[in-house]
Structures are given as structure tokens and as C-alpha cells.
Design a protein that fits this description.
The chain is α/β, with parallel strands linked by helices. The chain folds into two domains: 261 residues, FAD/NAD(P)-binding domain; 122 residues, FAD/NAD(P)-binding domain (3-Layer(bba) Sandwich). Strands 1, 2, 5, 6, 7, 8, 19 and 20 form an eight-stranded mixed β-sheet that branches. It has a five-stranded parallel β-sheet with strand order 10-17-11-12-13. Strands 14-15-16 form a three-stranded antiparallel β-sheet, with no helix packed on it. Strand 7 and strand 8 form a beta hairpin. It is globular. The N and C termini lie far apart (54 Å).
Length: 459
Amino acid sequence: MTGTPGPVTGTSFVPGPHLLGSPRGRDWPRPPAGLPTGLPAGRDEPPPSADVVVVGAGPAGLAVTSALWHHGVRDIVVLDRGGRACGRFFARTDRLGQRVLRSPYEHHPGVEGFRDCELLDFARLHWGRLTPVERREVRMAQAGHRSVVPVDVFEAYCEHLVATHEVAEKTWRAVVREVLPADGEVVVRTDRGPVTARHVVLCPGEERVAAPSSWWGDGPVPSGVTYWDEPATPGAGRQVVVGAGLTAAHLVSGALEAGREVHWVVRAATEHYQCADVNAKFFRPEGRARIGGVPWADRLELFARYRRASIMFEFRPALARAEAEGRLVVHRGEEVTRVAAGRGGTVELRLANGRLVAGDDAVLALGTKPEIGLGLLPASAVGARDGWPDLDGRTLAYARAPRVSVVGAAAGMVLGPAARNIDGHRVATARVADAVARGLRRDGVFVDALPRSEVGAGV
């Protein structure tokens, strides 16, 4: 089934495809000079104890650690499987060839409520390194309009936060096995030894959704089939992409740019084009209040309606042109029922309508799901309901383990669909960092908070 992309409705913001072309790998000065930005050398095991342990060093973990620094909390251990702040985040964007973020300039892991250099400030400070298109986006952001952020600028800003908030020397490479709440403390068990903390903040991010095992029966995943976040060997010939969201759009776009023919399998009847993967209303306080102020069943319904796969408008012209030229074939409204090895080393996908789609390789981009703490915390502490944890809405602590908090998509039933985005991380971080600092004071730990700013942004 092929056709033209679905109509664009319900929006007045339709950016042009030129926004997708920001350069990558520029040399950015990262003041102040001399501060470490990488994994500390010569240390194999994290300290045995800390006031706070942050699990995960992605954008959420970076935001939490930076916010606690402003609260005067210095005894922090950050545990991350890669040992580098935002390492997996940027590895994933580079795997997709992604050059700009979906989040605008006001959404970033900076700290609300304290004087700090924010992402827009950082871009302005490095005006001379920006392209003309990027400068126009900065002016749009200054005027209060939505604008997109280059991945290159965002990565340099994250490294600025790492340096100025002493994150690198607090970060340890470790795989967290268990988080065990106890009276007055929490034990975090890792592959490099346990760490006992007064408070723990989980920032686990999201994990990819796996394909149903029925696609390949009882056998292994066929050769030539990879997931979107796995390394893939660049190839030629036809590529098949399965998925309907922004990740799939990046994969399709990259294959087309490489001169490949692409078959794109989209389960929905049309692709969704919108500025964000959740309605913009949920980024505002009234949107978050809408989620928190309704019964549980209504929250689930809102999530089903608004948290859906979507593609940035910037992709639409190029994808429509490729489809019209026959370089892109889109199978809309089709379910995959079987994936198997084909002749000559190809991959064959059987669709629900009986059609067979073959390619030299296939990439699966089936979405992501929140990590809510199951597998780390005891199930009794998570209190999962319909796939969501039982959280205190004021502090984002687990209601049954009040010394453990969470920042990220797992807070969705409190903050709404925006919890999975960087803007949601900011809101969650403000609540969690304040609650943790107050908890440390109750524990008798001296916390010397830095001065707050009235506007929360400074250079």
C-alpha cells in the first residue's frame, strides 16, 4: 500500500527542511578551562557511601546532579554504565545521523530557580560558531517562538554543565544491579561493589521496545535485522525500516541520502507530523495540572490519545519527494507478521495483507518504553499499576520507598506525556532536588545552598 503523506492539520508551525542540516563535530570552547569533562582516571570502584546516588548520567541525570550542586549537595555519586555524561544519548543521535533536537531552546537540562548559564545563553556566547540558519533559530527563541536546537550545540552545552557543576569527578562507570531501600538508607548494588546512600535518584531513561518473538518463531533474530540503537554496517541496495516515529524518519532519511531504495512499514494509516511527540499543551503548567488533577483511568486515556509516534515537519518535503520519485515505498496501515532470512542473504518481511517485502537489511524502530524501576527496586517498592510506578506527586519519590526518587519518563502519571522529554526533566528535577536537599537537612547533613536568581537564568 503506497500513497502520499497524510495531511498536516492542527498546527501553524511548519518549519522548512533546511533546519535539519546543522554541522556536527565543531570545536567548542568549554569554560572554565582545565576542569575535567571525562571519566576520572585510575579509579575502579565507586566510594562505599554517599549522601546521594544518581543512577544514570543521561540528560536527566545531568540535570539532577547540576541542580543538587546548586543546592549545595556535594557528596554525590553518579553511576552510569558508560561512565560519561550523556554518552548513550549522543551515541544514539549519531547512530541516527540526527543533527537537530526536537526540543526547543527553553527545554534543556539546566537548572530552574538558580542563576546559571542556560542553553540559549550558551548559544549566544558562541554566536560566531553558529551557521546563519542556526542564528535565525536563536533569534526566534529570543522572540519567544519555537525553534530547534542543533545536536552539536546541545552536546557542547552538556559538557559545559559537566565542567561547571563538577559532574565528571562524581561519575563512575558501573552497572547497577539492585536498589534496596532500608531504614534510613538505600543500598545500591553494582558490578563494582555496593554504595550506601541516604537518597537515590533513578534516571534510567527509556529502553527500546522489542519485536514480538513470533516474528521469527523459535529461532534467533535473522541475520541482517538490527534495532535502531545498534551499530549497523553501512550497506547498499534496499533497506526496510519498520516504525512510525522520528527515529524511523531519521533512518529512512539517512538511507535515502546514501542512495538506497527504502521500503518503510508504518503500522498506522498515516504518518503523524507534529512539532513534538506530545501535544504542546502538556509542556505548560496547566497541561501538567490537567494530568495530575484527573482520575487514573482518564490519565491513561490522555496518554493513549496524545503520546504517539510522530515525525518532525522538517522531514515531510524530502520524504514526499522521495516517495513521488519511487525511491521510497511506504506501506501504510500494515502489520508485520513474520521476519525471516531470504535468498542471497536478504531479509524478508511478511505483512498482514500477505505481501512480502524483501531488503538487503532491515532496521526496527518500534518505539521506547519507560524504565519504572522494576528489576532494580523490589516490586513491592515500585507498586506498579498499568505499567506505571506509585509516586508521590510532590517529590516524585516512590510512595513505598520515600528515599528513592525518579526523573524521566517514569514520572508520566504525575507530569503527563512531557515527562519523557527534556522539558519534563527540568520540572521533575526541580521537585526532586529540592526534596532531596530538604531530606538531607532533616538527616542532619549540612547543605549550603547557592543563591537563587529571580529569573533563574544568568551568565
